[in-house]
């Protein structure tokens, strides 16, 4: 038996005991069982994902950096809700910032430093301080499923079978099927070009998987997490959270959940309000158990349902799906906080999905920002940036100006985004997509019902409209979105009694009469009962 196998056997036993305890009552990870507290959420609850390299360049080298983000915090949240000039976001998700040989930095060579291209630790600490001063929480991408093949650990491990770092990684033995394929049919065993043997890498040979069956690896990654919390981070976006162990199997999924429980418990020793958002790109039934240890998980399927509904002009079950998945997630953890989004750094950008139609992009924003959960925006989404595969073109430079200007990043020549789409072009345009996002995020901040976890589908009798109720305390909002290219008139029983006022609409042509509403094409409407009348 190899040392890897011995470690695996011991570690499996260590991880399985808590899992059995968690399953004992039939409610695997409910809040009362795991003792975890929900994160404290303030403001709008909206997070903004930034690819640092593309955002804002503070030193003129063409690359975005941490100082650049600090300089543009007022664009994101100026700390003045009444100014109307900022997005009023509540949180930032910083894509990987550790040293890395790649442009995307999802293959780390040093878990305790900032990539010199982005700045240094003092720049990071300054950004945390200034963000917190404006009420912005910051989570950073934590990439611990694998390291870079250029990491000193792997370099030593691949060259010396006797090194202690050999067991930091997963190596084939005589019984290994070297033709094994991963979750999406990819090759997972890779020949060691620096010595003997084959190693496991879920994503590719440049990203060797770390061996979490080794207690030393788990201890090291807990140390890494605590370190960044001590530097000021408020939490982490956990990359490839279901691939720490083979999450497509029950044993692997159970071990993943046990590991993330251990990780969260250790992080809470440093920051009781730490926020952990996990990437589990799978069906809801696979995602749900991860709500035991994690606060939020990205709702990939809901994003697809929203965009497909808008593209087709017919509701594919947006509210029904959101309501069903939320109920499922809360069966595992009463404090489950969904993380809906429209697109991210791995997906075709929203404006490209919607064929460049600004009306549809505004509609997408209206749906996203009126659903439950903690919504995530992808940088540039608010101005309608486009992007399609390969990945480099999903991460093009943020467009600040119609032409060139201070801070504009130039590391990549844009293929999809030039001056006609920019912050400068939309900043003072009340009919712009940017203004729509500003308005919607403030609306979410003003109405607790939009930030609550309540959701009840409204039957409209037509697939052209998706509609739902949002409630908190005495306030109930009725939300309607016309997905079609034609005006729609609805008869709504709830609106027959009392007087109803328009809280928000994206069109001046909406009409609300007793029991009847008329919504123009691609428009949204929110009403509530006027109790003062």
UniProtKB/TrEMBL annotation:
- Lineage top rank: taxon: Bacteria
User: Where is the signal peptide, in residue numbers?
Assistant: 1-29
Tell me the ranges covered by the Glycosyl hydrolase family 13 catalytic domain, including all copies.
49-444
The alphabetized UniProt keywords are: Carbohydrate metabolism, Glycosidase, Hydrolase, Signal
Q: Which SUPFAM superfamilies match?
A: (Trans)glycosidases, Glycosyl hydrolase domain
Provide the GO MF annotations for this entry. hydrolase activity, acting on glycosyl bonds
Which reaction(s) does its UniProt entry say it catalyses?
Endohydrolysis of (1->4)-alpha-D-glucosidic linkages in polysaccharides containing three or more (1->4)-alpha-linked D-glucose units
Q: What class of enzyme is it?
A: hydrolase
Q: What is this protein called?
A: Alpha-amylase
- The protein's organism comes out as Paenibacillus brasilensis
């Amino acid at each position: 038996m190899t040392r890897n196998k011995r470690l695996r056997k011991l570690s499996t036993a260590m991880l399985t005991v808590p899992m059995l305890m968690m399953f004992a009552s039939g409610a695997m990870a409910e809040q009362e069982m795991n003792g975890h507290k929900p994160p404290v959420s303030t403001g709008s609850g909206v997070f903004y994902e930034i690819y640092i390299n593309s955002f804002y360049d503070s030193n003129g080298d063409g690359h975005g950096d941490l100082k650049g983000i600090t300089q543009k915090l007022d664009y994101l949240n100026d700390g003045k809700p009444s100014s109307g000039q900022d997005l009023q976001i509540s949180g930032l998700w910083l894509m990987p910032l550790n040293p890395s040989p790649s442009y995307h930095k999802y293959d780390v060579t040093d878990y305790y430093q900032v990539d010199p291209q982005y700045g240094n630790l003092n720049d990071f600490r300054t950004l945390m301080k200034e963000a917190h001063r404006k009420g912005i929480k910051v989570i950073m991408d934590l990439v611990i499923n694998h390291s870079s093949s250029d990491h000193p650990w792997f370099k030593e491990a691949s060259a010396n079978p006797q090194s202690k770092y050999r067991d930091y990684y997963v190596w084939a033995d005589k019984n290994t099927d070297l033709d094994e394929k991963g979750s999406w049919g990819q090759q997972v065993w890779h020949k060691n070009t620096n010595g003997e043997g084959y190693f496991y890498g879920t994503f590719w040979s440049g990203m060797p998987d770390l061996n979490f069956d080794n207690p030393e690896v788990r201890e090291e990654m807990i140390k890494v997490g605590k370190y960044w919390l001590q530097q000021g981070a408020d939490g982490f976006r956990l990359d490839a959270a279901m691939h720490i162990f083979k999450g497509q199997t029950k044993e692997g999924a159970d071990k993943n959940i046990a590991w993330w429980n251990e990780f969260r418990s250790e992080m809470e020793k440093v920051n009781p309000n730490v926020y952990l958002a996990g990437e589990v790109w799978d069906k809801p039934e696979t995602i749900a158990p991860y709500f035991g240890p994690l606060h939020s998980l990205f709702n990939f399927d809901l994003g697809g349902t929203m965009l497909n509904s808008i593209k087709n002009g017919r509701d594919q079950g947006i509210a029904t799906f959101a309501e069903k998945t939320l109920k499922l997630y809360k069966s595992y953890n009463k404090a489950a906080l969904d993380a809906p989004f429209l697109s991210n750094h791995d997906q075709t950008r929203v404006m490209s999905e919607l064929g460049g139609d600004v009306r549809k992009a505004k509609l997408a924003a209206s749906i996203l920002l009126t659903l439950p959960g903690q919504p995530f925006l992808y940088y540039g989404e608010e101005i309608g940036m486009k992007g399609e595969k390969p990945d480099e073109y999903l991460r093009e430079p943020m467009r600040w100006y119609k032409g060139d200007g201070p801070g504009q990043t130039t590391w990549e020549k844009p293929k999809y985004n030039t001056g006609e789409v920019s912050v400068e072009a939309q900043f003072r345009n009340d009919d712009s997509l940017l203004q729509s996002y500003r308005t919607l995020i403030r609306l979410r901040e003003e109405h607790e019902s939009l930030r609550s976890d309540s959701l009840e589908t409204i039957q409209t009798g037509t697939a052209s409209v998706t509609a739902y109720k949002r409630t908190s305390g005495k306030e109930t909002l009725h939300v309607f979105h016309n997905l079609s290219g034609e005006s729609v008139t609805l008869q709504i029983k709830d609106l027959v009694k009392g007087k109803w006022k328009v809280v928000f609409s994206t069109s001046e042509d909406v009409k609300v009469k007793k029991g009847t509403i008329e919504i123009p094409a691609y428009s949204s409407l929110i009403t509530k009962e006027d109790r003062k009348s």
